[in-house]
Write a structure and sequence with these properties.
This protein has 467 residues and is an alpha+beta fold. It has three domains: 2-35, no CATH class; 46-68 and 294-466, Alpha-Beta Complex (v583 fold); 74-287, Alpha-Beta Complex (Enterococcus faecalis V583 fold), CATH 3.90.1710. The chain is built from 17 helices and 17 strands. The strands form six sheets. A four-stranded antiparallel sheet has the order 7-6-3-8. A four-stranded antiparallel sheet has the order 11-10-9-13. The protein has a three-stranded antiparallel sheet with strand order 12-17-16, with no helix packed on it. The N and C termini lie far apart (49 Å).
């Protein structure tokens, strides 16, 4: 024992970092291991142990998925009304964000968006009639993800709404999304006043025809290139789309000028896109959806292909468990609020825009967008650390989407449910905040996480299927 105390002290500190910091102050040689027990306790340990029994090469399957994600080439190829292109679209079908949900369990903003959608579609003349129709059972509700598309926030889409058509040119699959209305009192945040309906009608009758013809004149637009450039210009393409919208504007503006519409309409369309920094969000989302779709159904893969919220539930889907939802409660959002609003007004997390994080951008690329902290809260250091942390739960660094602040390191791509459960690190999401009551709209923006149980449940099902 005496000989032991004569030797130089070298410490490996596991767990609480405070012990390590105290040792360093004393001049001791020490290294810190950032470790904590897996979330979920014994249940988590049991499912991780049971992974030894699976009869599939997970590493090889995940490698295949990563190759699919890297090779994807999302491209804007055109526009149409939902009724003409969205698979399975019907007059009395309303698509929404997140996993499946019935009217009775819908959150305030989702109910508000449904009411607005029914009025917009002419199926109801006012709020009361729309609510009665929604309750009647005549209207069917289904997630956008069941119809090859995505919707921001409430995500409501109806029969007549125009949609972007994004094709993954590498794999030939197509994804769809409505156009972005801007911020504030808009349908996707649950507002349905006359000004909201009037704007949606103008988008259908003027904005859509002009853009449709402009895209036809311009030709296909490579969205992957725009996203890659935008990440190097200060965007993360979820809550900050200023650069991406500007790049898209440069692509489409000359073609808009060439269309056959009146100068008044063309001017209004150009002003609308220019004044809406989030216009590109409704392109980045289906771009990521189209990138991830070919990975769905890859046997033996533990890579997440969908993260989505409906304001009540948060759901994920996994490549090797095609078509199955794993659902938990939507979480509160910690963020910045518009004047006059606070946490007591906020609805839990909502929207399909987490498809951006699933594809390796959005919150996973926050280090590319230091100015995002002015919108969602936190510090520049927090934004950079968020991206660094996400490398621990993903299987690859993106070969196209790069982070200048990290020496052009590729963004963390390919969320692996095994790593999430093993390390107890949850995907980081930045998002808008909707008011909890229908009809009010956006009240802020911030940061949140999914619930841990959905990753544990997915891993349990994976073990059950492949053992």
């Amino acid at each position: 024992m005496r000989e032991l105390f004569k030797q130089e002290l070298k410490v490996i500190n596991i767990g609480l970092k405070g012990f390590y910091e105290d040792l360093k102050k004393q001049g001791a040689k020490a290294v810190h291991v950032d470790w904590k027990p897996p979330l979920g306790g014994r249940e988590t340990l049991e499912v991780l142990e049971a992974l030894k029994n699976v009869k599939v090469d997970i590493e090889e399957a995940n490698k295949k998925v990563i190759e699919i994600l890297m090779a994807g080439q999302p491209t804007l190829v055109g526009m149409a009304q939902a009724k003409d292109v969205v698979p399975g679209m019907e007059k009395k079908l309303i698509l929404h964000a997140g996993p499946p949900i019935e009217w009775e369990r819908m959150s305030g903003p989702l109910k508000g968006a449904v009411i607005g959608g029914l009025i917009y579609e002419g199926l109801a003349k006012d709020e009361k009639e729309a609510e009665e129709l929604a309750k009647s059972g005549e209207i069917k509700f289904d997630p956008w993800h069941h119809h090859d598309g995505v919707g921001p926030m409430a995500g409501v889409a109806t029969y007549s709404m125009p949609v972007f058509i994004i094709e993954n040119k590498t794999y030939g699959v197509r994804a769809y999304c409505t156009m972005n209305e801007g911020l504030g009192k808009v349908l996707r945040y649950g507002a349905y006043s006359q000004e909201v309906i009037d704007r949606l009608k103008w988008m259908e009758e003027v904005l859509y025809p002009v853009l449709k013809e402009a895209i036809k004149l311009k030709g296909e637009i490579n969205l992957k290139n725009i996203i890659a450039q935008a990440l190097q210009m200060g965007d993360e393409c979820h809550n900050r789309n200023r650069a991406a919208t500007s790049l898209f504007f440069r692509e489409i503006a000359p073609a808009i000028i060439e269309t056959s519409f009146s100068d008044k309409d063309k001017k209004k369309v150009l002003e609308f896109i220019d004044s809406n920094d989030h216009f590109f969000l409704n392109l980045s989302m289906p771009a990521m959806k189209a990138t991830l779709m070919p990975a769905e159904g890859v046997e033996g893969s533990t890579i997440v292909t969908v993260m989505a919220r409906n304001g009540t539930d948060f759901g994920i889907r996994v490549a090797g468990l095609k078509g199955e939802w794993f659902v938990g409660p939507a979480q509160e959002v910690d963020g910045l609020f518009f004047p006059g609003f606070g946490p007591e007004d906020a609805n839990p997390d909502i929207g399909d825009s987490t498809i951006t994080e699933t594809g390796g951008i959005g919150g996973f690329a926050m280090a590319s967008a230091p100015a995002i902290v002015k919108f969602v809260g936190g510090t520049v250091k927090d934004a950079i650390e968020t991206t660094k942390k996400m490398y621990e739960i993903t299987d690859a660094e993106n070969n196209t989407y790069k982070v200048p602040f990290l020496e052009f390191r590729g963004t963390p791509t390919g969320i692996n449910i095994v790593k999430v459960v093993e390390k107890g690190i949850l995907p980081r999401i930045n998002t808008g905040i909707a008011h909890k009551e229908p009809g009010i709209g956006q009240v802020g923006a911030g940061l949140t996480y999914p619930p841990m149980n959905i990753f544990i449940d997915a891993l349990k099902k994976f073990v059950e299927k492949y053992s």
